[in-house]
Amino acid sequence: GAGVSQSPSNKVTEKGKDVELRCDPISGHTALYWYRQRLGQGLEFLIYFQGNSAPDKSGLPSDRFSAERTGESVSTLTIQRTQQEDSAVYLCASTTLQGSTEAFFGQGTRLTVV
Amino acid sequence: AQSVTQLGSHVSVSEGALVLLRCNYSSSVPPYLFWYVQYPNQGLQLLLKYTSAATLVKGINGFEAEFKKSETSFHLTKPSAHMSDAAEYFCAVSNTGGFKTIFGAGTRLFVKA
Predict the structure, then answer these.
(1) B89 and B103 in contact (C-beta within 8 Å)?
(2) A contact test, residue of B101, B107, B108, B110 with most A CBs within 10 A
């Protein structure tokens, strides 16, 4: 595709429900990142997929958070039993494994837990 | 290992004044360095990047940054601030070898009329 696509753009969910966020990276981008951005805050790294290597999950804040990616395609971030503190914008970015290539970001999914 | 430090979470300048946003990095191998901008309610977009060619890098909207290896810095500057420059700015470091890109905490730029 022309850019990184994230869906939904907005999601309101009730506390305790599970949510699934989707990221379609740029075709051919082997690397994919998920970040969380709370209101007025910086980027909080969540997870990094690097081709067929094991993902770097070091940023996932709890075992309620998980993410999957099959090959170099779509990635989904799942949050189970959502809490109010999960409310944030979730950003996805894709890039190549060439370190000189910048990351291309989606517009994000704004998650509100009520 | 890599890290990025952005000095100053908030910077305020007057319209027409010099913009200087500071970024220092740490990297065990030669780095690639990036500045991204995030306008309100939008995703991040690339302003400029250093990839070991010219040390002075020019980007969009009149911004530029200079890679200084001796100071491990990559500060972002613009000679004359415009109201439309008000945004969040992120510095980032990566390198060849599959190490994940590391972002700084961000600096919010305010431009006063």
Answers:
(1) no
(2) B101
CA distance readout (Å), B19 to A21, A55, B12, B42, B83: 37, 38, 9, 22, 12
Nearest residue, CB atoms, A107 vs list B43, B46, B97: B43
- pLDDT tens figures, A20-67: 999 999 999 999 999 999 988 889 999 999 888 899 999 999 999 999
- CB < 8 Å to A42, chain B: 88, 90, 103-106
CA-nearest residue of chain A to B32? A100
Angle, CA B6 vertex, CA B4 and CA B12 arms, to 5°: 165
Residue partners of A41: CB distance under 8 A and separation at least 6 = B106
With beta carbons under 8 A apart, name residues in chain A contacting B96: 98-100
For the segment A90-106, the average pLDDT, to the nearest whole number, is: 91
Inter-chain touch A43–B45, beta carbons under 8 Å: no
pLDDT per residue as tens digits for the range B15-40: 999 999 999 999 888 899 999 999 98
Task: Grade residue A70 by pLDDT with cuts at 50, 70 and 90.
Answer: confident
3-class secondary-structure state, position B112: strand
Residues of A with CB below 8 A from B95's CB? 99
The 3-state DSSP class for residue B61 equals helix
Closest by alpha carbon to B84, among B107, B102, B61? B61
